[in-house]
Each structure stands twice: as structure tokens, then as C-alpha cells.
């Protein structure tokens, strides 16, 4: 009899302890406010420098450091054609107080199909963001992205937005009529389809290339590359749709491997 009562007695004590708050505390989870300070040093502006131009530095997109801190990931579509005759230089832009620092970068590899570009810096490395390697991102998951939504119009200060992964959907968006099919969309139709992350989050011009990451761990799951426009491109600021898209980070891994193997 006692052998039956004793386990029940200890089970009752465990239940009472849990009710009274004596249970072991759950592991602490970082809040977004704690993650942002670790993300911001890795996020940079991508732009060009032309000393005879005013302003000399022109912002084109957001980028972020990965791997050894000398590799910068951004969107392929944002990279401009450089005026090599006038010695225009591609690079990254970092704000140091009220001053903008420009660091030249070399385009190492480009993946136009997945809208990704890999730039390489020289000199001191930046803090690198961690890339997801599990592919475990799921619809309904909370996410965040940090970048420069209006370029240098608001000053080169990284801005963070919350988002939710609302769907994993094919890259090609259905066009309402033939006028909505541009050259980029037609070209994409001719390629094999791939899945893209649809976000419930508002992005603006300048956010292209922003890292999309887990708000608790800071692990990057995607690269923001476009937003759905309600009407014309000019309405992106006045009438944001709240629907944005990001390239899954698996293609970043492939791009970095491409550089490593020299393919």
C-alpha cells in the first residue's frame, strides 16, 4: 500500500509546487528590442561614389554583412550601371555620427534569377549576421526586417519593421491584365518557378536588400526584394500595400558557395 501512496504523494507535491510558482523557470527569450542592437551594426547602405557629382554618394539599396563580415548581400535589381569613364565606384555606406563613410566593394557574384548580389569588402570586417540553415521557417511566424526605407532621406539610420510570414508562394505574381506584365515578369515566366516569402509587413523604396530575420534569435531567413504596388510605382509612399516579398536565405547560401567554388 505504501509503495502506491508514496509516488502519488510526491506527484501531489510537484503539482502544488507548480501552482505556487516553484516550478523551474522557462528559458528566457530575447525580445525584438534586445535583438535590434545586435542587428543594426551589420546593416549597411549600398551605393555609389562619384566625386564630381553632387551629392557624391548616391544610395541604391540596403545590404547586410554575412560570413566573415566582408561579404555583403543585397538585391541584384538595385545595382546600377556604373559610369566607369568618370570613375564611379560601387560600395557600402555607413553613418558615423553626422558623417557618411564610403567603403568600396567589388561585385563577386550575382544571381539575377533570385535577385541576389554578393559584394566583397576589403579592410576591417563588419559584424556578420547568422543565416538560417534549417529552412524551418513557417507560415504565421513572426519576423522583422531592418533597413533604410527611404534611403538617405531620413538620414542613414537603420529602421526596423515587424512582419509576419503570411504565405510561401510562387515567385510569379498573377497579372490582372497584359499591361501589368513588364519585361522582368515575362523573363521570370520563362524560368523555373521557385517559392518566395510573402510578408504581412510594409516596406518602402530603399528597403530592398534588407535582412528578414527572427525577432528573438536574429537569424536571417530571407532578403527583402520587393513590395506589391496598389497602382503605380509613384504610389509606393502614399499608398503602401502592406504586402512585401523576400527571397529565402537558401539562395544566399548557394550564392556564397558559388563564389567559393568559382562557378
Element layout with pairings:
Layout: H1 2-19, H2 32-39, E1 43-49, E2 57-66, E3 71-74, E4 89-96, E5 99-111, E6 116-121, E7 142-147, E8 159-170, H3 183-189, E9 195-200, E10 211-213, E11 220-229, E12 240-248, H4 250-261
Antiparallel strand pairs: 1-2, 1-4, 2-3, 3-6, 4-5, 5-6, 7-8, 7-10, 8-9, 9-12, 10-11, 11-12
Question: What do you see in this structure?
Answer:
- A six-stranded antiparallel barrel has the order 1-2-3-6-5-4. It has a six-stranded antiparallel barrel with strand order 7-8-9-12-11-10.
- The radius of gyration is 23 Å and the shape is globular.
- It has helices at about 1-20, 30-40, 185-190, 250-260, and strands at about 45-50, 55-65, 70-75, 90-95, 100-110, 115-120, 140-145, 160-170, 195-200, 210-215, 220-230, 240-250.
- It is built from four helices and twelve strands.
- A hairpin with a 4-residue loop joins strand 5 and strand 6.
- By secondary structure, it is of the alpha+beta class.
Features of the shown structure:
4 helices; 6-stranded antiparallel barrel; 36% strand; alpha+beta; 263 residues; globular
Summarize the structure.
The protein is an alpha+beta fold and 263 residues long.
How large a portion of the residues is in β-strands, by DSSP E? 35-45%
Instruction: Give me the Rg, rounded.
Output: 23 Å
User: H/E series, N to C?
Assistant: HHEEEEEEEEHEEEEH
Oligomer: single chain
Low-confidence stretches: 1-28, 173-181, 229-239
Number of strands: 12
- Estimated helix fraction: 10-25%
From the helix content, strand content and strand pairing, which structural class follows? alpha+beta
The coarse silhouette is: globular
- Average pLDDT confidence is 81
Amino acid at each position: 500500500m505504501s509503495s502506491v501512496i508514496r509516488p502519488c504523494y510526491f506527484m501531489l507535491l510537484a503539482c502544488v509546487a507548480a501552482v505556487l510558482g516553484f516550478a523551474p523557470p522557462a528559458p528566457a527569450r530575447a525580445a525584438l528590442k534586445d535583438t535590434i542592437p545586435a542587428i543594426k551594426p551589420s546593416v549597411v547602405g549600398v551605393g555609389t561614389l562619384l566625386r564630381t557629382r553632387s551629392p557624391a554618394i548616391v544610395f541604391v539599396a540596403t545590404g547586410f554583412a554575412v560570413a566573415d563580415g566582408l561579404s555583403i548581400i543585397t538585391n541584384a535589381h538595385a545595382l546600377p550601371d556604373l559610369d566607369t569613364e568618370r570613375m564611379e565606384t560601387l560600395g557600402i555606406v555607413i553613418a558615423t555620427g553626422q558623417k557618411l563613410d564610403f567603403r568600396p566593394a567589388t561585385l563577386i557574384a550575382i544571381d539575377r534569377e533570385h535577385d541576389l548580389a554578393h559584394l566583397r569588402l576589403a579592410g576591417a570586417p563588419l559584424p556578420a549576421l547568422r543565416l538560417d540553415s534549417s529552412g524551418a521557417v513557417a507560415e504565421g511566424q513572426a519576423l522583422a526586417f531592418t533597413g533604410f526605407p527611404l534611403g538617405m532621406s531620413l538620414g542613414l539610420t537603420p529602421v526596423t519593421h515587424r512582419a509576419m510570414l503570411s504565405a510561401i508562394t510562387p515567385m510569379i505574381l498573377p497579372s490582372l491584365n497584359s499591361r501589368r506584365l513588364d519585361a522582368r515578369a515575362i523573363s521570370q515566366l520563362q524560368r523555373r518557378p521557385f517559392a518566395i516569402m510573402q510578408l504581412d509587413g510594409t516596406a518602402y523604396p530603399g528597403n530592398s536588400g534588407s535582412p528578414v530575420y527572427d525577432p528573438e534569435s536574429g537569424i536571417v531567413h530571407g532578403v527583402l526584394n520587393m513590395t506589391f504596388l496598389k497602382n503605380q510605382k509613384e504610389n509606393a509612399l502614399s499608398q503602401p500595400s502592406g504586402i512585401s516579398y523576400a527571397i529565402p536565405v537558401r539562395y544566399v547560401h548557394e550564392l556564397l558557395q558559388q563564389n567559393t567554388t568559382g562557378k
